[in-house]
């Protein structure tokens, strides 16, 4: 992405970049995170009514080589990827190629095996199909190896729902992407990554890639997840000291050997590198529709621009308002999701969180990612936000991402 013209005010140190009139609270909160050492490297971008108003970054893309974070630094965004997959499926629905209320088996006959014949597209994309895990043990390498594609598809088709479809909800942490990608490709007749580049990302000026080419490698930042020991220490502390919190409930569940959250979160197995495996070049090259997209913060924010403005941006209509309308409402909701152990819901692949988390606007939607990354939009206020970071948080919702969103909604132009 070419250099972007600076906004009216330079970001406060140690942040770099710029901010427009009235949006200084976001830049100040971001700079405070950097100054406190809460970030290694990160960036946040905000667009309001189609105009970029916050564009700040800072820290290190790779502290080992002392490579600083730049305005166009990209990084794997984990489950923010699910929001991009939802965008692709909305584009198909807008063209009359996909019906949210149709059985998935209409488009993918093999899916209908073992009690899945009547599962609707919207039920699957709303994490209510009872398919949050796979009984077949897979590895991350299985999911990116074309020679193993038949094995993965067979595992998806043979899976038996864990509950009566439509009667419960549990985050399909990895299976969402596996099912969504296969469904998309059977409907569209092409891979999801090139479709998104051609139909959305390139026209909108977004640098998001799902299946990142070698030309983007020099811009990639390294991820730094908490060590296993650190994660376990925090989880145990949450389970003991804050047992009623989402982190406390999730910790107790994951530490149980045969729990549903454990099954949902640990298969496919990423191998000995754990979360760091998603930083490998061959994983970034793959179109894993649950986790492997890479982007800059501004690339994420730009991708949501048509979704924040009724489907139209600039002189192009990307999708009709009536296609987007269902995303404004909660198509599904649980006061305690069976996997993430907190209140949340989805609407045709987009996440709907509690009003105090990312946005007080009920119509807002998007998707966060492991460790804190966020892609979100508010169609009422016409806001989009992209936040990316390489210091991954262990919590269900990163306080850094939440804090940036709270600062945004405290800005005078947003409150007006």
Low-confidence stretches: none
- The percent range for helix content is 25-40%
Q: What sort of overall outline do the alpha carbons produce when their principal axes are compared?
A: globular
Radius of gyration: 20 Å
- How many strands appear in the DSSP assignment? 15
Main beta-sheet annotation = 8 strands, antiparallel
Strand content: 5-15%
**Gap between N and C termini:** 32 Å
Notes on the protein architecture:
- The protein has helices at 24-35, 80-94, 104-107, 121-125, 140-144, 149-158, 175-188, 192-204, 228-241, 246-254, 260-265, 281-285, 297-303, 321-328, 399-409, 412-415; strands spanning 9-10, 16-19, 41-48, 51-62, 67-68, 75-76, 294-295, 312-313, 316-317, 332-334, 344-347, 350-352, 365-368, 374-378, 383-389.
- It has 416 residues and is of the alpha+beta class.
- Strands 1, 2, 3, 4, 5, 13, 14 and 15 form an 8-stranded antiparallel β-sheet that branches. Strands 10-11-12 form a 3-stranded antiparallel β-sheet.
- A hairpin with a 2-residue loop joins strand 8 and strand 9 (316-317).
- The protein is globular and about 60 Å long.
- The two termini are 32 Å apart.
